[in-house]
Amino acid sequence: MRKTTWLAAATAAALSLGLTACGSGSDTGKGGADDGPLVVGVTPVPAGEVLHHIDDKLAAKAGLKLEIKEFTDYVLPNTALQEGTLDANLYQNQPFLDDFNKSKGTELVSVVKAYLPPMGVYSHKVKDVTKLRDGATVGVPNDLTNEARALKLLASAGVIELKPGTGADASPADVTGNPRHLKFQEMEAAQLPRSLDDMDAAVINNNFAQDAGLSPTKDAVYLESAKNNPYANLLAVKKGNEDDPRVEKLAKLLTSPEVKKFIEDKYKGSVLPVSGS
């Protein structure tokens, strides 16, 4: 039976209070209430759908109880995990987690990689990213990791060039070649799909694209490749809780053949399964 708490990202304070009111994770690791439900924070798509499939079809047989809490932003699932109101979360990649730990002073670690949701360029005005007009406005996420990822995607499409050696902290200041004189509009990642009509294109994270009814394989005018991609989404916990038996059970299920098949059948290339950690 599904247990879902919807947490809309209205304000951080209100949501933090909502988390506390709706129940808390065990924050116990090895020695805690391992027979209680594992409280996992997710974004609705695809993480929430994958977790609900596990909860409905696989968890009971594995002796695992799940409580799934849904978030609509990228900050609160980590702050809740650090504070102990979540036992684990599933929604982010390793570069984002590393930057979050560095900037927020959190102690969160990866347990296992689960799947890759490819980032894409979307547009209501062109069908080919290389056909963007001179001076076009392109929306990009305003958080460090996803903005860097977006700029790298545009560079791989050949519409901009980045300074050699640019890494996971790339910003518009690192753009060394911009023959189309693109203008980058930075905004919250969740706001980009609804702002498409106001821009020439936007680089949108997979989960927010699908939330908005966009199909990465059908609607993206340019889509990220899975080859050598460091942005697979991972199951994360607070440091010290990696060996929680409930976490180990969920990690095993996330990389199981059954979940791999679910991802392949449901998303048909819009989300790609990842085997192993």
Write the layout of secondary structure elements.
Layout lengths: L3 E4 L4 H11 L15 E5 L1 H14 L8 E6 L4 H8 L4 E5 L1 H11 L3 E9 L3 E3 L14 E5 L2 H13 L4 E2 L12 E3 L5 E5 L13 E4 L1 H6 L4 H4 L2 E2 L9 E6 L6 H10 L2 H11 L4 E2 L4
Parallel strand pairs: 1-3, 2-3, 2-4, 7-10, 7-11
Antiparallel strand pairs: 4-13, 5-13, 5-14, 6-11, 6-12, 8-9
The end-to-end span amounts to: 28 Å
Q: Based on the structure, what is the oligomeric state of the protein chains?
A: single chain
Radius of gyration: 19 Å
CATH topology of the largest domain: D-Maltodextrin-Binding Protein, domain 2
The total count of helices amounts to 9
Helical coverage, percent range? 25-40%
| Number of beta strands | 14
The CATH homology group name of the largest domain:
Periplasmic binding protein-like II
Contiguous uncertain segments of 5+ residues: 1-24, 27-32
Mean pLDDT: 89
Membrane topology: Lipid-anchor
Main location: membrane
Organism: Streptomyces griseoluteus
InterPro entries: Lipoprotein_NlpA
What does this structure look like?
It is a single chain. The chain is α/β, with parallel strands linked by helices and about 280 residues long. It has 2 domains: about 40-120 and about 230-275, 3-Layer(aba) Sandwich (D-Maltodextrin-Binding Protein, domain 2), CATH 3.40.190; about 120-225, D-Maltodextrin-Binding Protein, domain 2 (3-Layer(aba) Sandwich). Helix content is about 30%, strand content about 20%. The chain is built from 9 helices and 14 strands. The strands form 3 sheets. Strands 1-3-2-4-13-5-14 form a 7-stranded mixed β-sheet, with helices on both faces. Helix 2 links the parallel strand 2 and strand 3. The longest helix is centred in the first third of the chain and has 14 residues, at about 45-55. The chain is globular. It starts with a strand and ends with a strand. The model is unreliable at about 1-25 and about 25-30 (pLDDT under 50).
